[in-house]
Amino acid sequence: MTQIKFKKVSDCSLSEVVSVWNRGFEGYSVDVTMDTQTFLRRMVTEDLVAEASIIALDADSPVAIVMNGFRKHDDKVYAWNGGTGILPEFRGTGLSHTLIEEVQAVYHEQGVNVANLEAITTNERAINLYEKHGYELIERLGFYAGPQENQDITVIHDYELECVRVPREKIRSLSFFQQDMPWQNQMESLKEGIGYILYDRERPIGYAMTKERYDVYGNVESVQLYQVGIEPILEYDLLLMLTFLHKIFKLDRDGVKRHVINYPNRDTVLLNALNELGFNKTIEQVHMQKIL
Questions:
Q1: Comparing C-alpha atoms, which of 198, 287, 210 is closest to residue 249?
Q2: Whole-number Å distance between alpha carbons of 94 and 50
Q3: Among 65, 176, 244, 290, which is most buried by a count of CB atoms within 10 Å?
Q4: Quick check: 3 pLDDT over 90?
């Protein structure tokens, strides 16, 4: 390996960027390869910035990539590592340390206050590397897959519940809206998301954000849950959570693919409800953070 140089993703052709991305994730435990359209869509969805993302060059050949995103909340600038990929033949050469140092310089230029990233739990080498560079594990995140067949659950409660589809902006106005979520679960990443508010009579007591897919006849094919929140006074009501999830996941219908995406393990009531409904964890990640 010669002396590594860097250039911005914005200075590269799209085909070059996608190529080094796909080659950089060869052999990864999860398939994250993409075509150009999917890559561009992800950049828009996750607020990834080409001018602040980097490609590493060895003798002018791309050998690694880091995609970075930035958001501002409460006068703080947050950064997210949207993927670090290194070509197989350059892994274990110390390049990962060089990449992190270069990314830190980018974050400094962008005025970042808090840096975030995620790593698959089984990727101990990456987790140890980030810890050496000052990142701390703040929570674990789970992906869950649910049953595709319908479920008939009978609930008995004192509520008169109505689940209403609403604009995303209406959810933001709720007093119990959760901004403190992993990057992919934040409202900014749910530009094509569908919002629901759960009402008890006319009082909002819960909300959810999903992504859904329908066939040409309007029949639901899949539901992905990214956020769910319950009014604090009711947040430990397991029966209420089960009722809400039954509505959100449309569990009265057969043949629907149901998933929970990248959800923090701090919400024990949700996790207990998912277990009762037959959901199983498929992937676990660690959520890591560094205060700059």
A1: 210
A2: 24
A3: 65
A4: no
Assessment of whether the complete model's pTM goes beyond 0.90: yes
CA distance 68 to 130: 16
State both tokens at 36: 């150009």
- The string of pLDDT tens digits covering residues 205-232 is 999 999 999 999 999 999 999 999 999 9
Mean pLDDT of 236-250: 93
- Among the listed residues 124, 121, 130, the one whose alpha carbon sits nearest the alpha carbon of residue 282: 121
Helix (H) / strand (E) element for 68: namely: strand 61-73
Hey, what domains does the chain have and what are their CATH numbers? Answer: 5-112 (3.40.630.30), 144-287 (3.40.630)
Burial 193-224 (b: 16+ CB within 10 A, else e): bbbbbbebeeebbbbbbbbbeeeeeeebeebb
Q: Please give the structure tokens belonging to residue 92.
A: 């274990």
- Rounded to whole angstroms, the Cα distance separating 228 from 194 reads 12
